[in-house]
Design a protein that fits this description.
This protein is of the alpha+beta class. The chain has one domain (about 5-140). The protein is built from 3 helices and 7 strands. The strands form 2 sheets. Strands 1, 2, 3, 4 and 7 form a 5-stranded antiparallel β-sheet that branches. Strands 5-6 form a two-stranded antiparallel sheet. The radius of gyration is 17 Å and the shape is globular. It starts with a helix and ends with a helix.
Length: about 140
């Protein structure tokens, strides 16, 4: 088999795996992350962020992802995540802005609408960090 074919196959296979991982991450961000954020206190240690001149409260979403692939394995506070998940994966935090705007007595805000920070407890591989950053980018685009 020619080397070009093998390399092309490896690249397309890697891209397919990356797409699957990003899709998986977006599902994790849509449900478990959103559930966690909706049950967190706002404005505590996550503070506020200014976006386009307007202040927004933030909440922190603690998560765990595979250090090599960037696949999100769990969201939750340390005490709520099984030790086996914590020991086999890397901890991270997403800082997420919350829009609670009310117009004429009715909620008109977007809820949790933008991930404004990504913090690693230790370092992810370059590939894993890229997958997580792409997942954040796509999540933010969807929640404008």
């Amino acid at each position: 088999m020619p080397d070009k074919f093998i390399k092309k196959f490896e690249v397309s296979h890697r891209e397919q795996l990356d797409e699957q991982t990003i899709h998986h991450n977006l599902l994790e961000m849509a449900t478990p992350m959103s559930y966690l954020l909706n049950n967190e206190s706002l404005g505590g240690n996550a503070g506020e962020v200014e976006i386009e001149g307007k202040p927004y409260s933030c909440a922190a979403a603690n998560g765990y992802a595979d250090v090599v692939t960037g696949k999100i394995v769990a969201f939750g506070n340390f005490q709520d995540v099984p030790e086996i998940i914590r020991s086999r994966n890397q901890a991270f935090v997403f800082r997420v802005a919350l829009d609670l705007e009310v117009v004429e007595g009715k909620p008109s805000g977007r809820g949790f609408f933008k991930i404004v920070g990504f913090y690693e407890k230790e370092f992810f591989s370059q590939n894993a960090r890229g997958i997580l950053e792409e997942s954040i980018k796509l999540w933010n685009e969807k929640h404008k």
